[in-house]
Amino acid sequence: MIRTMGKFSIQMLILIGIYQIGNLTVRIFHLPIPGNVSGIIILFFLLWIGIIKIDHIEMAAGWLLKHLSFFFIPISVGLMTLGPVFVTKGVSFLLVLIVSAFIGLLSAGKATQAVIMKKEKEKVNYHDHAL
Amino acid sequence: MITLYSILLTMSVYYFARFLAAKYSSPLTSPVFISTVIIIIFLVMSNVSYDEYIPAKNIMTYLLGPATIALAVPIYKNRLMFAKYFVAAIMGLSIGIITTITSAILLAKCFQFSKDFTLALTVKSVTVPVATEIGKIIHGNISLIVAYVIITGMIGAMFGAKLLNMFKVDHPFARGLSIGTIAHGIGTAEAVKEGEIQGAVAGAAMGIAAVFTSFIIPYLIPLMF
Q1: In a shared domain, residues B113 and B204
Q2: Is the CB of B70 less than 8 angstroms away from the CB of A71?
Q3: How does it sit in the membrane (chain A) (predicted)?
Q4: Which residues of chain B are within 8 Å of residue A47 when distances are taken between CB atoms?
Q5: CA B51, CA B55: separation in Å to the nearest integer?
Q6: Do B178 and A76 touch (CB under 8 A)?
Q7: How many CB pairs under 8 A join A and B?
Q8: How far is CA A65 from the centre of its chain?
Q9: Statement to judge: residues B97 and B41 lie in one domain
Q10: Chosen domain end from B62, B92, B107
Q11: How crowded is residue A70: how many other Cβ atoms within 10 Å of its Cβ?
Q12: Domain co-membership, B98 together with B117
């Protein structure tokens, strides 16, 4: 139990450390990306070149991802300051956001799937030809 | 004292929402949405203002950064898939972002939104930390931007999977990409639950969409206004 907790804490510290390095590199090199995206890229590279192994962070990373929704709740509570806007503009406001989100979701999903299917079909055709 | 109350309230409502989502699966039980509604009701009833809630918010979101970079783990595990579908991903991502921004702005013009309200729509699909940075550059209204971004994330988390089912987008890579591109982190949190591939792709798409949007916005704004 204590051992597991110790392991979990060390893994968490590794993730916090890499996140801070991500923030730092963005600030030092004035990169046009956010600190968290830079952190994802750094962690990916460390995993790729083998400095960090999946085992070193998997327990904490899995726990954080399982509860990823939680971290957005306190930020969303900030919507309570928007009461007056909602009263006057609520319906059109929501309508614009919902319709444009649906259009974006469908076109992104359909386009991606179409390109994947085309690629996979080409592969099958090529295979037929070889036969 | 208020901070402790706010933290306990937020955590217990989150656990209740998870239990509810496991029992009754519906867009209305999507954890971020239902928890936010319940917490706001409690705060209003107990006379706690948002300013008083902020210290608790800062403590609870401390791990959001590390949680976001934890997405590198599923991305790494599925790296071969990313290489395989690279072209599809870039196509889907750019088409998704451009259609969602364009349709939002056209609709806003139909409803005669003020410039502030329309301008903020350009970053509605970008993850919160980046959206606020872009917001400063384009002189947008930051609190409005945050509201748009959160509500868009909730819409994606609540209805994204159902909408994609309805229109037969069933490839896990395409599903993850669509939700991550449009509904950033809040959508990604939901995609993670659907499957490892969906979660990994959504996380990567969120990051790439943020960078892509920040690059195109300076060119897009003169066209729109």
Answers
A1: yes
A2: no
A3: Multi-pass membrane protein
A4: 72-73, 76
A5: 8
A6: no
A7: 306
A8: 10
A9: no
A10: B62
A11: 24
A12: yes
Which of B32, B88, B156 comes nearest A69 by C-beta? B32
Question: Are residue B128 and residue B210 in the same domain, yes or no?
Answer: yes
Average pLDDT over residues A32-45: 86
Q: Name the B residues in 68-107 with CB < 8 Å from any A CB.
A: 68-77, 79, 85, 87-89, 91-93, 95-97, 99-101, 103-104, 107
pLDDT at A99: 97
Q: Which residue among A48, A73, A94 places its CB closest to the CB of B39? A: A73
* Total count of domains within chain B: 2
Question: Alpha-carbon torsion A90, B145, B211, B79, what sign?
Answer: negative
* Domain limit, last residue, from B21, B39, B62: B62
Checking if the pLDDT of A42 tops 90, the result is yes
pLDDT above 80: residue A89: no
Could you give phi then psi for residue B85, rounded to 5 degrees? -105, 25
Residue A90: its chain B contacts at CB < 8 A?
Answer: none
Q: Domain limits at B200?
A: 71-224
Residues B162 and B135 in one domain: yes
Are residues B19 and B129 located together in one domain of the fold? Answer: no
Q: Are residues B212 and B133 in the same domain?
A: yes
Q: CA of A1 to nearest chain B CA: how many angstroms apart?
A: 23
Each residue of B31-62: pLDDT tens digit? Answer: 899 999 999 999 999 999 999 999 999 999 99
pLDDT greater than 90 at residue B25: no
Residue A125's pLDDT band (boundaries 50, 70, 90)?
low
Dist. CA B206–CA B187, nearest whole Å: 9
Q: Which two three-digit tokens encode residue B121?
A: 């729509």
Chain A contact set for B70 (CB, 8 A)? 15, 57, 60-62, 64-65
**Could you tell me if B111 and B57 lie in one domain?**
no
* Number of helices (H), then strands (E), in chain B: 12, 0
Closest to B118 in 3D by CA, of B224, B1, B8, B35: B224
